[in-house]
Amino acid sequence: VQLQASGGGLVQAGESLRLSCAASGRAFSTYGMAWFRQAPGKEREFVAAISWSGGSQSYSDSVKDRFTISRDNVKNMVYLQMNLVKPDDSALYYCAARRGYGRMSSDEGVYDYWGQGTQVTVSS
Q1: Counting C-beta atoms within 10 Å of the first and last residue's C-beta, which end of the chain has fewer, N or C?
Q2: d(C-alpha 88, C-alpha 86), whole Å
Q3: Beta strand segments in 41-84, E
Q4: Which tens digit of pLDDT belongs to each residue from 86-110?
């Protein structure tokens, strides 16, 4: 499975941005998906996750009520809609996939596949 993240860029605080992650392979609809991010000098952290069916989502406290994760199992895509962005949201954003109808998790160790990351920079 290959994951290709895109959609990052430079935005001002308070604006919106949508990240996309394209997945290869026929089994995408069985994968739990997630977004993580890593800012310079910091550890990678969980942002959001979505179940294989799309019926359940979870978010970190720092993005809850501002970000929305969604997926399209026909197009093999997962999205992260980022609203009201803040300078603290600046980071390299990664999408990740968990095989075999895996449950949602904020633990990066359970994810089997990772994309290359897309940079988000929020100016104040």
Answers
A1: C
A2: 5
A3: 45-50, 57-59, 67-72, 77-82
A4: 999 999 999 999 998 878 899 999 9
Instruction: Encode pLDDT of 79-90 as tens digits.
Output: 999 999 999 999
CA–CA separation, 105 vs 32, rounded Å? 9
Is 97 in a helix, a strand, or coil?
Answer: strand
Return d(Cα 64, Cα 84) in angstroms, integer: 11
CA distance 116 to 103: 23
What distance in Å separates the CA atoms of residue 51 and residue 108, rounded to the nearest whole number? 15
Residues 13-30 have a mean pLDDT of 95
Closest to 29 measured CA to CA, from 70, 58, 59, 72? 72
Rounded Cα distance between 119 and 1, Å, is: 22
Kindly list the distances between the CA atom of residue 98 and the CA atoms of 1, 12, 62, 101, in Å, as whole numbers in the listed order: 11, 32, 23, 8
Residue 37: per-residue pLDDT: 98
| Token duo for residue 35 | 């977004």
Residue 71 phi/psi, 5-degree rounding, is -150, 155
